[in-house]
């Protein structure tokens, strides 16, 4: 369909466009890299408002251990409980003194990080050999694991892997958060 403009419409258009100047360039402005955003200044934290670290007396140790950080999916914890996430590395602490077990556990987690282990098994024992008949290492492991930022979740192992005398530990991906976006 071809519409014809009336002479009066053409005259109105020319009058309206009379003082318009043509553009010098008819191409789009070339891409230029933008500077990175400037972060907003964060208000300084009042030391009184800062949450205190977890005290060992606040951690209850039951026969069956289960812990997951906020944001960990229930499905992942359920898979861990069923033993469907295979432990790639394990350490046996039962029968050790607390100080030796803590040092060994520290080295174990460094090895896990180096090997990029996602799931590990820690055998802490059931505490039947201790003087107080209380599971000393189990209580300590329960507390120590909650303090570690690289531990996402842990649960008592299945019966075939030690039952309540061992835990499966789900570890944070060591590469997560360290990846930077590269601009091309």
Describe it.
This protein is α+β, with helices and mostly antiparallel strands and about 180 residues long. The chain has a domain at about 65-170: Ribosomal Protein S8, Chain: A, domain 1. The protein is about 25% helix and about 15% strand. A 5-stranded mixed β-sheet has the order 1-4-5-3-2, sandwiched between helices. Helix 3 links the parallel strand 2 and strand 3 (about 120-125). It is elongated, with a radius of gyration of 32 Å. This is DNA mismatch repair protein MutS.
Shape: elongated
Q: What is the averaged pLDDT score?
A: 83
From the N-terminal CA to the C-terminal CA, the straight-line distance is 47 Å
> What is the N-to-C order of secondary-structure elements (H for helix, E for strand)?
HEHEHEHEE
Main sheet: strand order:
1-4-5-3-2
Q: Any idea what the radius of gyration is?
A: 32 Å
Low-confidence stretches: 179-184
Helix content: 25-40%
How much of the polypeptide forms β-strand, as a percent range?
5-15%
How many DSSP-defined strands? 5
Give the CATH class of the domain at 64-171: Alpha Beta
Number of helices: 4
Region (Disordered): 1-55
Domain Smr: 91-172
Protein name: DNA mismatch repair protein MutS
Pfam family, one: Smr
């Amino acid at each position: 369909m071809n519409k014809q403009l009336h002479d009066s419409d053409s005259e109105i258009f020319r009058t309206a466009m009379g003082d318009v100047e043509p553009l010098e360039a008819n191409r789009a402005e070339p891409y230029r890299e933008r500077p990175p955003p400037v972060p907003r200044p964060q208000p300084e934290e009042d030391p009184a408002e800062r949450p205190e670290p977890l005290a060992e007396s606040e951690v209850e140790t039951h026969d069956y251990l289960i812990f997951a950080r906020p944001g960990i999916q229930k499905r992942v914890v359920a898979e861990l409980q069923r033993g469907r996430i295979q432990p790639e590395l394990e350490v046996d602490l039962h029968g050790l003194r607390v100080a030796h077990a803590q040092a060994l556990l520290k080295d174990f987690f460094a090895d896990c990080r180096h090997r990029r282990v996602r799931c590990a098994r820690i055998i802490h024992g059931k505490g039947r050999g201790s003087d107080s008949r209380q599971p000393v290492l189990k209580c300590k492991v329960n507390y120590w694991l909650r303090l570690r930022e690289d531990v996402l979740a842990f649960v008592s192992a299945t019966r075939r892997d030690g039952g309540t005398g061992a835990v499966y530990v789900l570890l944070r991906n060591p590469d997560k958060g360290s990846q930077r976006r590269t601009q091309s």
